[in-house]
Amino acid sequence: MNKNAIFIHVAGLWTLSTLDASAKWLVLAGVPVLMVTWVRYVMHIALMTALVLPSQRSAIFKTRSLSRQLIRGLLMVLSTVLFFSVLRRLPLAEATSLNFMAPLFLMAMAPWLLDETHRWHRWVGVVMGFAGVLIIVRPGSPLDPVGVALGLLTALTFAFFQIATRRVAHDHPLTTNYYGGLFGSVALTLALPWFWKTPELSPGQWLLLMSTGVTGFVGHLMQIMAYSKAQATLLAPFSYLQIIAAVALGWLVFGQLPDLTTVFGIALIGLAGLAVVLWETRMAFSRTVKQ
Questions:
Q1: pLDDT tens digits, residue range 181-229?
Q2: Which of 65, 78, 99, 275 has the highest CB neighbour count under 10 A?
Q3: Which alpha helices (H) appear in 191-202, and where do they start and end?
């Protein structure tokens, strides 16, 4: 087991949870969601241009399918904007847990979009995940129903984003990461005149806004490093440890803790995804042994 890859993977996810907490704090302070997203992508591409472009040069732009990279970039921006909108309405832990439906949506759509075989255990996982969602948004729950709906839409969009990422797997990871940041920066800059609103922030708050690009860049870079050192099947089960960071930051920064019933729903979503991942890993191992 590659312990370094696992550590980098989890650390990267926790760094991205820091980005989520920063974005939530900023949108609650009145900064428009699109502005937070724009700063996040502009800082991301600026860092990649400064740190990666000098060594990669023109090689970073080489892709076998520019159209697929652009589609992935569009889905990346949409999922970011949607998730930041969710963070305005829902606590960090609940928002993060709803996003864990994305891999379950991906598994459900894989037979049609990725020509993969139908497998019953994937559908069991999807049903379990939705049961967890229903527990979280049960009657009497204080959660905003619009926020929950946006959370599920975010998860669905992120599932399409993961499919798009698989379809550009032939390109270098740095190339894919660069195109994603570049698309987001250009698209949101062109839309800037329609949503620009100069926020009244203190120097510390401006620094927090700028940090979203740094944490986004570092978090995604650590993910690239982890997946270059270990297989996705090894790292996938550890992805659900991100909920620990989400709960901790939600409590430390916003004083929000999910109640016991919500914790059960969150755990059910996590267990559904984890069980499917472990079953897929077992099947892959069995196929390898038989060959």
A1: 899 999 999 988 887 777 778 888 899 999 998 998 888 788 877 877 7
A2: 99
A3: 192-195
Residue 123 burial class via C-beta count within 10 angstroms: exposed 0-12, middle 13-18, buried 19 and up? middle
Integer Rg of the chain from CA: 19
Plot region of 258 (φ>0 → left; ψ -120 to 50 → alpha; else → beta):
beta
Q: pLDDT tens-digit profile of 150-174?
A: 999 999 998 888 788 878 878 888 8
Q: Which residues of 85-104 are buried (b: 16+ CB within 10 A; e: fewer)?
A: bbbbbbbbbbbbbbbbbbbb
**What backbone phi and psi angles, to 5 degrees, belong to 127?**
-65, -45
Strands, E, within the chain: which ranges? none
For residue 290, CA distances in Å to 6, 64, 285, 286 come to 27, 34, 9, 6
Distance between CA atoms of residues 158 and 76, nearest Å: 7
Please say whether the beta carbons of 246 and 93 come within 8 A. yes
Which amino acid appears at position 66 of this protein? L
Q: At what angle do helices 33-51 and 203-229 cross, to 10 degrees?
A: 60
187 CB-near residues (< 8 Å, 6+ apart): 73, 74, 77
CB 224 within 8 A of CB 177: yes
Selection from 75, 83, 73 nearest residue 178 by Cα: 73
Looking at every residue in the chain, the average pLDDT score rounds to 84
How many residues appear in the chain?
291
Model pTM score: 0.83
Q: Which residue has the tokens 């969150």?
A: 266
Quote the tokens at residue 26.
Answer: 């900023």
